[in-house]
Amino acid sequence: MEWLIRMKEALDYMESKMEETFNIEDIAKVAYSSPFHFQRMFYMLTGVSVKDYIRKRRLTLAAQELAISKVKVLDVALKYGYDSPESFAKAFRKAHGITPSAARESGVQLKAFPRLSFHLSLKGDKEMDYRIETRDAFNVIGLVEEMTTKDGENLRRIPQLWIEANEDGTSDKLIEIGVDKDILGICKDFNHEKETFSYWIAVEASPETDAQGFASTTIPAASWAVFTSVGPMPDAIQQAWARIFQEWFPSTGYEHTGGPEFELYLPGRPDAEDYRCEIWIPVMKKS
C-alpha cells in the first residue's frame, strides 16, 4: 500500500510540473526510490517510459490549449518544453497527425493520452518462489543490437531478432562457443534519457574463448533475484516479468541496481507446457 501511495504521489508531481522543467531525480525522490528503479518500475507497469509519458501528456495538454484558445503556437511550444516551433510541430504532427495550427480548426480530431492512475489490486494469492544468488563477474559472447523503447519498438524488435538468430544459425553457433548449453537474453546499458538499451543474445564464455566474430562484454558481480518461469514461451515469461514488478518488488525491501538483467533459456522445447527458464535481476536492499 505504501508503494502504491508513493507511485500516485510521483504521478501527481509529474502532472503538476507539466509546464515546468524537472528531471527524473526529482520524480524518483517523491517516490523514495532510486532514479533507475523508479524508471524501470514505471516502464514495466505502464508499458511506456517516464520520458515518453511526459511527452505524450504535454502534447495532449498542448492540443487542448490550442483548440480552445488563441494563444500563439510559439508560446504553447515554449510552455510545454520545446525550444522551437519546428521541433514542437514535428512532435505534434507525430502525436496527432496534424499541424499545431490545424488543431484550431472546428471539428478536427485530436488524440488524448490520458493521465495514468494506480489502483489497489489485491494479488499474491499465488506463491512466488525466488532465490538470491551472488555471482562474481562473468564474460559473455554474442550478438548485440541497440534497442529503443520509444513507442514500444523494443517489444517488436526483440522477438524478431530471436527469430533471425534461430533461423540463420546464430543461436546454434553461440551454444557451441558457450561453456554450457544455456543461452541468454541480456538487457544492459540502459539510457533512460535517450530511451535506449543494448540487447544481447549471448552465452557465457571464458576470457580465453575465441569470440569468432561475435561481440563480448562482462557482466559485473552482483546479487541476483532469480525467478523460474514454467510454461510455453513467450507468454509464461512475460507473465513472470509482470508479477515481479507488480507483486514482488512492491512487497519486498529490494530495488533494481541498474545493472544488466537477463533471461536464461535452458535446453528444451520453448513451446512445451513444462518448459523452464529463469529471470535474473540484479538487486540491492533499500537503505
TrEMBL record:
Tell me which InterPro entries the record gives.
Answer: AraC_E-bd, Cass2, Homeodomain-like_sf, HTH_AraC, HTH_AraC-typ_CS, MarA-like, Reg_factor_effector_dom_sf, Tscrpt_reg_AraC-type_HTH
Which keywords does this chain's UniProt record carry?
DNA-binding, Transcription, Transcription regulation
Tell me which residues make up the HTH araC/xylS-type domain: 8-106
Task: Note whether Magnesium occurs among the keywords.
Answer: no
PROSITE patterns with a match to the protein in the record: HTH_ARAC_FAMILY_1, HTH_ARAC_FAMILY_2
Q: Which PANTHER family match?
A: RIGHT ORIGIN-BINDING PROTEIN
Name of the protein in its database record: HTH-type transcriptional activator RhaR
Q: Which organism is it from?
A: Paenibacillus pseudetheri
State the gene name recorded for this protein: rhaR_1
